[in-house]
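Fold it.
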Amino acid sequence: MRLTLTIAAVLSISWLAAAPGVSAARSLAPVPGRPPAPPLALRDLDGHLHRLQDYRGQVVVINFWATWCPPCRREIPSMQSIYKDLGDSGFTVLAVNEYEDPDHVFAYTGQLNVFPTFPILFDRDSAVSQVYKVKGLPTTVLIDKQGRIVYRAVGGRDFDHPEVRRIVSELLSAD
């Protein structure tokens, strides 16, 4: 499964890099029909349960990632930056780690220059990623205040990019 996710992520990043006028740093694909986000209930590093329904009324980024995934690791500082800047405005990041042990992830985050303050959740059996149809890591799903999936992206993103921030800000200002 890990090899399949790695190959899918590499292929999606290669496609984006080769596509003229498309930047992996800012491309978020609108999701047609804005379907309701499936339920999510996962525990964080401290064992606290986080349910997606607890974040209703907020704009939520769900980012599926792993420590062994280079694009995933590169996203963490920009995810922390947007979370720090917009977290008090009704925005949150839920970083869903795939397959890994909490002790391993805790040790990894301790080595980062920027320590993530957003929730890191654990999907060790990949049940949630299957429901969200994750085909490669990282995968990002952007959920609006009504709990609908509005954007999706496979491959690394720069959450500090003005286009990504514009999209999030528009969702925050929408009723």
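The CA atoms of residues 119 and 137 lie 18 Å apart.
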